[in-house]
Model the fold of this input.
Amino acid sequence: MNETMIAWAFFAGKILLLFGLAFGFIAPIMVWVERRVCALIQDRYGPNRVGPLGLLQTLADGIKLLLKEDLRPNEVRPWFFILAPIICVIPATMAFAVIPFGPPTTLGGLFAEPKRLQIAELNAGFLYVLAIGSLGVYSIALAGWASNNKFSVLGSLRASAQMISYELAAGLALVSVVLLSGSVDLVKIVESQTYLWNIFPGFLAFLIFLPAIFAETNRTPFDLPEAEAELVVGYHTEYSGMKFGLFFLAEYVNMTTVSALAVLMFFGGWEFLPFLPWKDVGVDVNGLIPLFGGFSLPAVIIPFSWFAAKVAFFMFLFVWVRWTVPRFRYDQLMSLGWKTLIPLGIFNIILTTAVIVFHRMS
Amino acid sequence: MLNENYLLVLVLFPFIATLIVAFTRGNAVSWVSISLAAIYFVIALLGFSVKELHYTAVWYAPLGLSYGFYLDAYSYFLILLSAFLTLISLYYSRGVIHEKLAAYHALFHALQATVVACLLCDDLVFFYVFWEAMLIPMYFIIGIWGGPRRIYATMKFFLFTFAGSLLMLIGLIATYVMYYKGTGQWSSSFHSLLEYYQAHPLSVETQRWIFLSFIISFAIKVPLFPFHTWLPDAHVEAPTAGSVILAGVLLKMGTYGLMRFAVPLFPEAAAHYAMPLCLLSVIGIILGALVAWRQTDIKKLIAYSSVSHLGFVTLGIFMMTEIGWNGAYLQMINHGISTGALFLLVGFLYDQRHTRDISAYGGLAKILPAYSVVLAIIAFSSVALPGTNGFIGELLIVIGSFQSKVASWGWVVAASTAAVLGAIYMLHLVQKICYGKNQDPQNEQLYDFRFREWVIYIPLVALVFIIGFYPEWLLGPVREKTMQIFSTIPQHLR
Amino acid sequence: MMSVPISYLLFLSFGVFCFGACGFLIRKNALSLLICLELMLSGVNIAFVSFSRLHQNEAGNILYFLVITVAACESAVGLALILNFFRIKKNIRLEEANALEG
Amino acid sequence: MDNPTEILSFVMGAAALMPLLGACLWFWIGKKFGNEKVAEKIVSVGAVSFMAVSFFCVLYTFLNVEGSARVTFFEWIRFNSKSAVNFAFLLDPLSLTLGLVVTGIGTLIHLYASGYMHGDPGFGRFFTYLNLFVFSMLMLTFSDSLVGVFLGWEGVGLCSYFLISFWFSEEENANAGKKAFIVNRIGDLGFLIAMCALFKVFGTLNIPELLAAVQAGSLTPDQLFWIKIACFGLVLGATGKSAQIPLYVWLPDAMAGPTPVSALIHAATMVTAGVYLTCRMQPLFLLNLEILEILAFIGGLTAIFAASIAIFQNDIKKVLAYSTISQLGFMFLAVGLIAPVAAFFHLITHACFKALLFLGAGSVIHGLHHEQDMRHMGGIRKKMPLTFWTVTIGVFAIAGIPPLSGFVSKDEILHFTWHSHRWWLIMFAFTTAFLTSFYMGRLWVMTFFGKFRGHHEAHESPVSMTAVLIVLAILSAIAGALNWPELWGGSERLNEYLRAVVSQAAGEHTEEAFYSSLKLAGISSLVGIAGLTLAWFRYRNFAGEEFKAPIFRIFKNKYYIDEIYDFAVVQNLKRIGYALWKGVDGFVIDGFLNGCASVSTKASLRFRRLQTGMTQQYALWVWIGFLLLLFGAWSLR
Amino acid sequence: MEIQQILFFSFAALILLSAALVALRPRPIESAMWLILNFFLTAGLYILLGSNFVSIIQVLVYAGAIMVLFVFVILLLNLDPREFGSEAGLPWTSLVMFIGFLTFIVLSLHVATPELMKKLPEIKETGAGVFGSIESISMVLLKNYVWGFEIAGVILLLALIGVGLLAYRKPPVRARAIHTSTTDTMKDGGAS
Done:
């Protein structure tokens, strides 16, 4: 097993781990969590029959979706109707490729240099995420348009407008974080937060970023594209079966991505606590962990778990908000985006720049 | 003694006057405008003792552009003439023009401003700018207060002169660039160009092309045959005061350009083209006179007489003799006075009868004796009777041209026939208007000169005789200037 | 890293550009026109980036940024115009945009 | 004013300015007071006294100037640093003599006119013009430069114009004035050219310098050529002003003016300006003998030509007008034969008797209430005795009856003609002499003898007119004494006096010459008497009949010269003018322009089809152009 | 053949193919889709060329912003074939294609010279970082080309204002709108 093979194996491992988690674990678990939390908030049981605590309910649903007939209404635009759910998953998955989920590591000496724990070792990950994130809109737009259903079209129109708008806000918010960290490399951003998480100097940015990611993922309170009461369910009204399943899947993957991004950008990624990094606790994230002497895996697992926990919190936040905050009206949504968040973002950039320049000078 | 700031006053005053007049409203317009014109005339008179003034301020140094103004005899007397005629035409217009009064007066001041700036500027770029700018006020004056065919006339006027100016622009640019090629630095100052081109004349071939581009523009402005057909139309349609300024000042810009720019810069080319240009001048002289004779429209008659007279001026210039140049310059002034006065006299009749048809009048010497006397004096000044201003100019031109090496003396003889032809059409005019029996009862209602008219015509008539009997006050400075210019022209070309 | 001659890249650039230009003339609706315009700009961008690589300086890349700035503006304004056109004519057929017919 | 030059300049300035001042004054007074009696009085007294002052000034100068003198007033035109023209007077025998004639005759005619113009609404205006004329004439006479002469030369033309068309309400009068001015202008053109040529040669236009330069000699052939041109020009000028062939046509028409005008301007003074000029510039002509030859021929031809026309004129003033032309021809004949003194002598005598004749005719016209046609006159010698007797002296003088002035001066010219041995000139001269006495006799007889054929009763003229007639008659009678030939015991004072400035072959003082001259005198007086006698018998009982033969119709219609000029020159010029206007300006130039305009209009109508409004087609054109550029760039590589 | 060459040729082929489809597909939405694909492929090509940052921007701006705008407008208008116009005729199409082909040939003639046939050099470190990286580009952009950068900003601002003005419609007065709509319905109702 030479170095190249180890590298390939490591690469494959990363892919497997992440995508396995994303599709095989997070998405089903999240569906379950969502339903359960919903039930909890609404003071009812939720799914609790299939498997322990109803955990297998999602699996059963998945099987059902896969086995259902592939319905295709007469009036739809055929190619795009099929294409839309497919390209819905692609960007979601692609964005995932640059999310680092742990500190660079030599895997206990397997490698001469520390390897990064992200699938594509891209040094402009932040931009990449933004770039790919902006593509999600296509699938929604196409889906609505291809369905040839006025609710769907309206839904997709709302979706595209909303996503473009809030993408700007999110981008502006993140620019200030980039300014603070001095890099667009996600790993370096995390490393720059060793002692001071970006949430403290960049609190304003976070305030902008948080609603923006809700809107980007079309989650309540910004789920106008699929507002059941107004548009039936918007762009995927005509979809059923696994095509619907893909949309469903992509939504949770996207949620995961943006949650991970929030953690990476603002909450120190895999770092332990604000002002208290692993290093100070005694964990050397780049090498052996003295606690377990010689065994290298926990050096990966401990920060990863910590990171996963943070992401999980954000996922829970999504769910929590969904069932507690009412939906915005569409014009409120737009004016919040264009008249509040974007100017605020610009102001934030100027402020941050000024502070940084001032700091450098003094 | 006046210093170079006097030039700034001279240039800027009419612009300011334009603005003041443009924003004046109501009954005050006329008086404000006329008093401004009078003040300007006085300012212009102040410069009489000035021999030469030069003002320069940097505009854009890398390209050698400057706010350069230069006053000498050549520009001074034309400025004086312009100020004088503007004053008189504005005074005349009082009570004649009623609509859009402020605009009317402002346009005349603007015209004055552009003309003066064009005369004074020492910078080719400025020269071109103001050369073009001159068209604009005149365009509006004819186009708004003109006669029934004014649109045709303004279009013709504008297209003719504009086409010429564009050609001149090419020439100006060539002059400018050649200087750069020769010296390695940019300059658009006429003086530095002149000095350079005198020291290092361009090849004759190049000179010719540049000269041609100049000459067409100037010839159209003058207007030289065969570019003259815009003139009768423009004159006929223009309001009286517009005609006065057009004939009295604007046409002079062409000949002034010849004397100031075209010939001194490119003497070789001027000598090369002098012969055909003289021929055109002679044709213009004779054609203008003969055609004038056959006109029934009084204004058209005078317009064609302008063609004839300005033919003399160009003849004097292109014959390339000092005496001829002095005569040509004097003739420019004379033409301004005489033709301006003639247009005013026609206007006097037109304002009362609203017709310019020569046959509508007759026997006015009985009804309007004072008018007839003034008309006769001006007419005889126009036909160059000795003792009037016209004679001095024409004599100098003819005597100068006769000595020229440029063209045969036979041409001078041919040109001099205009003395006869001029008498024919002018006496025709005087006879048809003043002599004979009055056929039209409407003419009985005409009023003769009142105070207003005397104010206008006494200075004009006085000038006719002052120049006729004592031209030295004008000729003296001009002669010195001409001598200065001729000292720069190679001996073999004179 | 890349071992093809610059001319191949330029051929590619020309090809994209010419397809864009052809599309620009063939299509009869304003939207497709704008789309083809983007294609042409993209073709130009390929050339810029290729030359940037050839000369190993960033000028080409920077020109790429300027080009996309223009492209973004152009598409935004163009689309706004199309919207207005649609509001007036209720279609986007270029045949109907012939008010300048001589 | 101790300096004699200063005194002279003051005196001569006064001489010239008095009429000019008068001109302004009379105009103002005439305007101010209308035609009131008082205005007329002021004007008439003023005008005559101003003229008298002027005359005495000239006389003073005449008596006080030895040889010649120059007075300069101020610089007029400066040509260049070397040469300028001044307002300056050249006082020499020639100019002073003419000056005396002008002011002297002028004074008399002013006096006459004050009676003649009595009651005319334009009384003030008339004297304005008349005084202006005298001013111009004095400028012409005394100016020491050709430009100054030209000022006078044109000035008299101008006044002539105003005076001919004095009664402007008649279209004819206005036309006659215009014709006079324009024809004169043709002559002036010659003058102008002469000035140019002389300036080219000598660089100055001051007469003394010019003549000095000519007399200094050593001229190159080129210069001689220019002098020849100048001489041609001067001859043309002289023919215009002095009404010689081919430019004489204006003079007969000029009779449209009031009669005093005809007397002063068109008989005594202005028309002699040509003679004066040629005499003044004689050194130039002496370099060009062939031009003198031509001048002599023109003079002779004009003399006989005009005389032949005069025979058939019925208008009394027309007869006198043609007579004037004819007599001027005599003078030019003399000048051409290098006898300027003779010419000048004839000029003076002619001024006297022709003025007399005109004024006499004016008296007749005045007496007959503006009747000018001789066919409506006759037998008025009883009614107007003074007029009759004075006119008779005039007629006899012009007819060459010895010893009246006309005989002496004409005989001198005939003498020179005879000795020139040119048979055609001799023939012209003697025939003219005969014709002159014939038509003058005709005039005399038709007017004063026979039956009265008019409409109005004749009356004698006022004293102011007849007195002038008497003075002039005396002058006409005795003026011959001025230059009575030495051969016949005279002193030839004029000859002596003028010799200083003009050259003339001196007469021989031999026996042979005496008999030869006596023979000539006999022949000439015989010719004169024969003419008068013939006229007496032919017209004694005139009742309206005329020569009927067709050949005479040509004479009667003045050889159709006016018609030929009109047809050949005026109409053609009109046509050319019209053609230039409509053809060159309207058709060629404006046609070209409008053609350009319409071609571009039409072309743009074609080209606008290229503007389909389809953007993509435009784009295709752009593209194709781009492609061609690319291809061009490649193929040029 | 190296792997990069293989990648390049396959990318090039796909780029050309998608470009052709952009030009040839009749419906705007299809063109847009193919164009998006084309941009992605081009982004890939840029990565091959070493311009990573450019590649990301290509996706972010072109695919992510500009094309979204297009798709958005296509959706907004929701055109049927009648509204987006008939197809050009065969003569016109073939003429245009022919000229396009000629242009390609002539352009290619221009670059088909030996000195342009040399292979691209290897990527070097520039002063500020690896060629094509964000550091390297931004150092040059914000130092040497800062004016171009600023002007680009101004152009964007102008476009922003311009589009705002173009797209702005006076909002109808609400009450009035309701009123008219009710009358319309009433009319419709009356008519039916």
